[in-house]
Amino acid sequence: MNMSLTPMVKNLLLANVGVFFIGYLLGSDFAGMLGLRYFGAPTFQPYQFITHMFMHADLRHLFFNMLGLFMFGPLLENAWGSKKFFFFYIICGIGAAIIYSFVIYLDLHSLQSATEAYFLNPSPDLFVQFMRDHAEGFYGQNLDFINSFSRNPTNPGFIEESKGFVRSLYLAKENTTMVGASGAIFGILMGFGMLFPNTIIMPLFPPIPMKAKYFVGIYGIIELYAGVHKAEGDIVAHFAHIGGMIFAFILIKIWKNERQDFY
What we know:
Elements: H1 7-26, H2 28-34, H3 48-51, H4 59-80, H5 82-120, H6 124-134, H7 136-139, H8 143-151, H9 156-174, H10 182-195, E1 200-201, E2 210-211, H11 212-228, H12 238-254
Antiparallel strand pairs: 1-2
Helix pairs in contact: 1-4, 4-5, 4-10, 5-6, 5-9, 5-10, 5-12, 10-11, 10-12, 11-12
C-alpha cells in the first residue's frame, strides 16, 4: 500500500494532533465545548457535529485514529483528489454523529419513560428493576442502599435518595460527550474496501492476510454486534463507527459513475 502522505491527509493529521494538544493545555472544558452532546441537552451546539471529530479522549485514541487515516487516507485522496477526499471525510464524520445522536435519542426516550414511571410509583422493587434495566453496572455498588430501602420501603429519605439516583443517571446520559475522528476513519475504511476490494492487507488483529473487502465486512459486523450487545463499561461509540461506514457507502454509491474500481 502507498504509505506516503498526501496533502489533505497531512493537513488532517496536523489539525487533529494540534487540536488534541491545545485541548490538553486548556483542560477538559475545551473537550466539553467542542465534543458532541445530545441534541436535546442544554449544552448542545450545532457546530459540535463537526468539531467533535477533531477531539480525542487520550493519546491512544488519537494514535489509532491517526494511524487509520495515515494508512488508508492517501489511497482515497489519490483516487479522488484532495477536495473530494476532504468532503468525504467531513460527511462521514457528520454521518457518524447523526447516527450516534439518533441512537442516544432512542436510549434517552426509553430512559425518560422509565424515569417518569418510577417517580410516579417509587418502591424498592421498581428501583431494583430500573437498576437492572438501565444501570446494571451500579447494582452491586448500591446493594447496601437497596437492602436498606427494601427493609424500609416507605422511608421518605430512601425514596428521595432513589429518585436522586434515577434523576442523576438520566442527566449523565443526556450530557454524555462523544469525541473522536473514528466515524470519519471508519468511513475511510469503508471507502478503501469499496475502491480497493481485492487489495491484500495484513491487519494488526488478527495478523492474517485477507482481502480488503473481507476485512471491512468483518470489522463492520464486529462493530454492529458490539453496539447492539454493548458490554458494561464499554464507552466506545460503536454506532458512530457504523454511521461513518453507512454514509461512506451511500456517498460512494452516489459517486459510482464518477469512479472506477481499483485492484
